[in-house]
Backbone:
């Protein structure tokens, strides 16, 4: 989901309830972009206790064609990630 300002049409991802630019309310819309390219990543070897059973794991930033970025864990990797991959 993303949010769009009802007044100035600014978009926020992740969504927010109020616009940072004009303080108006926003409406929630489905994010239509489905595929992003890997912008950056880090391999976490020493995880916090709550995630220690998952270590090592990859935390990545994906960039959508619109320029929006999403932070996520990458799972089920067959090889090391490469910046620019889908």
Residues:
């Amino acid at each position: 989901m993303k949010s769009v300002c009802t007044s100035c049409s600014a978009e926020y991802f992740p969504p927010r309830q109020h616009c940072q630019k004009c303080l108006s309310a926003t409406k929630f819309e489905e994010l239509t972009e489905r595929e992003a390219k890997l912008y950056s990543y880090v391999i976490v070897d020493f995880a916090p206790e709550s995630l220690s059973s998952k270590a090592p794991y990859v935390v990545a930033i994906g960039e959508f064609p619109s320029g929006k970025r999403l932070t996520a864990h990458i799972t089920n990797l067959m090889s090391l990630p490469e910046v620019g991959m889908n």
About this structure: The first strand starts at residue 2 and ends at 5. The chain has a mean pLDDT of 91. The beta strands are 2-5, 11-12, 26-29, 37-44, 57-63, 69-74.
